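Slide 14.
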Amino acid sequence: MSPSSAQRFNLAGLAITVVTVVCAVLWAFPIYWGIVSSLKPDDEVVRPYIELWPDTLTFEHYVFALTETQIGHWYVNSLATALGVTVLTIATSIFAGYAISQLDFPLRRTLWWLILASFMVPLQVLIINHFVLMANMGLLNTWAGIILPQLIHPVVIIVYKQFFDQVPKDFREAAIMDNASEWRILFKVYIPMNWGVTAALSIVTFIWAWNAFLWPFLAVTKTSLMTITVGITQTNDSFGVYYASELAAAVLAGLPVALAYLLFQRRVTEAITLSAGIKG
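Slide 15: predicted structure.
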């Protein structure tokens, strides 16, 4: 590479780095601003100018969120519903992916194309149908009413189907020769060979379910049954909304997901890459 080409390459790399850093700062600033504002007294939060650090550092808003709200109930509700969505989504997706990949049954290809076509239907379009169904079934203001409409994740089925397609046929043929049932083939051959995919998809599905707001907001009206994302909107009193307290509750709501991402960053990135590859 000539000196001029190397110089142009370095300049291009420098420009890409600068743009990346600027984008990262723009993305991270609202998070930083929310955390810093949650550590300010209320009178500092509403000042008409920007302060990057509080004049008076206080944790009173976190104490308020932890002691004066039902955040403990909201955590339990979010944990229960997110785990329920994760377990049921992964289980049903494994079964569906295996059936479409390895079994021969009527309308198999039609079902597969329906799953692919479901990408074109935003979940928000189904909200009214979900609400009417849950109301008719008497499941509003219940964990089941929160969980059931959130089990629609076709990308998980597609990822499993693709990975089951990649398992060498020799393994299945050997298991069939040993008179293994389909259940045994699935649990003894296919699932163990895809534990990494299952772990990655489980973590991302849990994060999706934990962060869900629209459907839990519509499905639950009782404060004690709200998930954390909905419950933090109740962080106020008869005198109105306190922004710092709202932000403190929001930080506490996002803390488990942030910790999960830090602990399982590689798995989360893997699952996002798989999902992006399918959608692309």
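Speaker note: Residues 3-60 form one domain.
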